[in-house]
Amino acid sequence: MTPGEREPIPGGVRRKRVGLVVQRYGVDIAGGSESLARALAERLVEDYEVAVLTTCARDYVTWRNELEEGRERVNGVDVIRFRVEEERELEAFNAFAEPLYRASSSREQQLEFLRRQGPFVPRLVAELEAHGGDYDALLFFTYLYYPTYWGLEAAPERSILIPTTHDEPALRFGIYDELFALPRALAFLTAPEADLVASRFGLGGRPYEVTGIGVEIPPDPDVEGFRIRNELVRPYVLYAGRVDGGKGCEEMIRFYETYRSRVRGAAELVLIGKLAMPEPRAPGVRYLGYLPEHEKMAALAGARVVICPSPYESLSIVLLEGMALGAPALASARSPVLTDHCRRSNAGLYYADAEEFAEALDLLVQDGRLRRALGENGRRYVRERYRWEAVLDRYRRLIEAVSEG
């Protein structure tokens, strides 16, 4: 089919055409907005003709082209990839960006930040300029990146922005005032994210939903097999995600050392995920690498506690997955999103410093009755708020709203 043609369905009715614009896409690509985009695309194909416009990059640090340019089908979804024209060298980017965070900057400097931030894919933007009108709705993921800013400029009239916003220095740039004014509708992952965007940019009477994300959990994760394969004899607490100082991991490890120094028979700290900092070598800390999904679920199900140390979160899928499996959370008090999850669910505690971290972790590890009560609260919270069918209904409402003009 050409870009303007739509797929017919039985009875001669033409299905509405929905495009998803996201910086990376693939079954082996991890990341909050990337995982959400793929999960949505693979479910929306039941109701719509779906295409994903993305890049050839696997890695968000360099944006290096590793996937083939052009069209392919991925789990029933039409994926169109465009080459990134400039790789990012992170040290040089940070040297350029850091002064802009600390002082006022011009629009030209901010647009240069956007280009260097990447992924720089002008041909993807050109595709939207030429054919954006062929879509009934366009969903843009993550406010921060080049394809979202320039893609919204090219095709604002039927656009839905899923910004995955958190309070960070770049959010104060004037170019993002322009960006948040463009979409016809917005979808937020949590109520605190919606409140942040409303206070910073205003919603202007546009349709919006706090959509969340659906959480699917395997019925019987192989906890015992996971323990045996990884020689985990003692109780353990878990961090799952990118192992990165920017995610709060360095602070978490320092706080864990405080906990370990005070508690006889302390639980081990197990880390799983892609390593983006020097591998931790502290006593009691085990790094197991990046695990496939079934192993990650077993790790979460077997953990006494799931630790979420990042101060910058727009949802935290791992926290919700852990709750769904009955693992209480221990979260950074600096994250409004994480503390909101803990309060609404009554399924976790949060900490502001090393003292609170050590006390809360010791309590959760040692008190089985408390842990089971919080675990049941977490299961209920996810079941009631994060079922996929309820999430999809919220997205369908937004798609219908923008497609009907």
What does this structure look like?
The structure is a single chain. The chain is an alpha/beta fold and 405 residues long. It folds into two domains: 17-214 and 387-403, Rossmann fold (3-Layer(aba) Sandwich); 223-385, 3-Layer(aba) Sandwich (Rossmann fold). The protein is 42% helix and 16% strand. The chain contains 15 helices and 14 strands. The chain has an eight-stranded mixed beta sheet, with helices on both faces. It has a three-stranded parallel beta sheet with strand order 9-10-11, covered by helices on one side. A three-stranded parallel beta sheet has the order 12-13-14, with helices on both faces. Helix 1 (32-44) links the parallel strand 1 and strand 2 (49-55). Helix 8 (223-229) crosses helix 10 (293-302). The two termini are 25 Å apart.
Annotate the secondary structure layout.
Layout: E1 17-21, H1 32-44, E2 49-55, E3 70-74, E4 77-82, H2 90-102, H3 107-117, H4 122-131, E5 137-141, H5 146-154, E6 159-162, H6 174-181, E7 185-188, H7 191-200, E8 208-210, H8 223-229, E9 236-240, H9 249-262, E10 268-272, E11 285-287, H10 293-302, E12 306-308, H11 317-324, E13 329-332, H12 336-345, E14 348-351, H13 354-366, H14 368-385, H15 388-403
Parallel strand pairs: 1-2, 1-5, 2-4, 5-6, 6-7, 7-8, 9-10, 10-11, 12-13, 13-14
Antiparallel strand pairs: 3-4
Strand tally = 14
Succession of helices and strands: EHEEEHHHEHEHEHEHEHEEHEHEHEHHH
Number of domains: 2
Dominant shape = globular
Q: Could you list the spans in which at least 5 consecutive residues all have pLDDT below 50?
A: 1-6
Q: Look at the helices and sheets and give the structural class.
A: alpha/beta
Q: Assign the CATH topology of the largest domain.
A: Rossmann fold
Helix content: 40-55%
Q: Spell out the CATH superfamily of the largest domain.
A: Glycogen Phosphorylase B
CATH class annotation of the largest domain: Alpha Beta
